[in-house]
Amino acid sequence: MENKHVAEVDEKLPLGKNLLLGFQHTVIAVLGAIPVPLIVATSVGLPEEQTRFLISAVIFSAGLSSILAALNVIPRTSPMVPMIMGASFAVVPVMISTLKSAPNLNVGFQVMAGSTIISGIVCFLLAPFWAKLQRFFPPVVVGTNLIVLSTALLPNAYHWMMGNNAYDLTKSIDAKPLLLALSIFVFHIIISKYFKGLLGNLTILISLIVGTIAAIFLGMMDFSSISEAPLFGLILPLHYGLPKFDIVSIISFLIVMILGMVEVSGTAMGIHDIADKKMTKDQFGRTLKTLGINTFLSGLFNSVQPTAFIPNVGVLNLSKVKSRYATATAGFMLILIGFVPKFSALISAIPKPVFGGVGFALFGVIIGSAVGILKGVNFDGNQNMLIIGLSVGVAMLPSTYPNFYAQFPELVQNIFGSGILSGSITAITLNVFFNFKEVFKKDPDVEETVELEPAEEA
């Protein structure tokens, strides 16, 4: 049984199927990559050219990160799992603060690059020690973390359905975006039931294509951003010059890096479970080494600290295909898109209600994965149910009341202002409190992972 599971993760798909599945991951990844640079650009008033570069740099870095997570490019560092990686929302407040406090935007990006590079080095060096913390991520924490992730991200589906009225709590939804989103929702449900084989693996992509065509006929597509975007844009290291190192900025980025390590640890445990690949301490360490390398490269290319894209975890579940080669293909596609701003503009021009129609499936299916993990957890004579309930409750707070932590210190806002981070930290802390003896009992013997030969990745 185990050999079958490993082979499923390492399965090399036929070229056509691999390209289609990779493209499906790519579309969702671009959607996840764009918000972070757009939020930063809007907050600090970036010129249009710098905004386009930041978006392209984030997409390009997401491609590099995804390849390094899937393939054994750098020996003994890759977890070799189907994990799409990209921009972390947790770093947004620190980026905005750094850029606003700099004498000019160019210096701000140099300081940001230096702080990100240092954070990546620290993460890589901490990886061997961090691997010893696997005891803090038992099934009850991993399952809870997946529920927290989906619960924190599910409101995005509602916002996407709102179209132009998204994030405005004083407005209600218009009829046209609502009907479009509901139509795509129903369409996706129907084809998910009746489509089998390759078509069954591509239900998300098919729904997005049909929804985009419908949006064009409804007059909801705005092609202006596509025509304005350049056809080609080269992404070179240190675009803004040599990095600068500011101690205050470095400390802020390191705090976010530690929080990001917690987030990726929990998400990676869930991905390993979905992909039926054993999460050994070696795998745990490789995941954090990959995060460190990817963070270093992100700083080098003036991008932002990466994390695992949760919507792509939903794609893994819905497509039923767990091959890491599909996500590696997506990584190569993301790199190409990073060089072609017009293509990323095309994907970003798809009306948000179209994504809202499949958003419930993307985020909701992760809850199903969590249930699969939690059904093996013992709930008799312990407080594991309380761990789940309180963690989800804490995670929902920022989504329900976005300004709840507005008057708190910046550090508190950075930690608890993210439902994903606050919920994950709550689950870890409560598990230590309630299951102290289990957490700190002597480690059992851990099975070593079987390494792939580097030539296999050539």
UniProtKB/TrEMBL annotation:
Q: Transmembrane region positions?
A: 20-41, 53-74, 80-99, 111-130, 136-158, 178-195, 201-219, 248-271, 325-348, 354-374, 386-405, 411-434
Provide the topology term for how it sits in the membrane. Multi-pass membrane protein
Does the record bear Transmembrane helix in its keywords? yes
Q: Which domain of life is it from?
A: Bacteria
| Pfam families tied to this protein | Xan_ur_permease (PF00860)
Location in the cell reads: Membrane
Alphabetical UniProt keywords: Membrane, Transmembrane, Transmembrane helix, Transport
Give the similarity note. Belongs to the nucleobase:cation symporter-2 (NCS2) (TC 2.A.40) family.
**What is the recorded name of this protein?**
Uracil-xanthine permease family protein
Give the organism's phylogenetic lineage: Bacteria, Bacillati, Bacillota, Bacilli, Lactobacillales
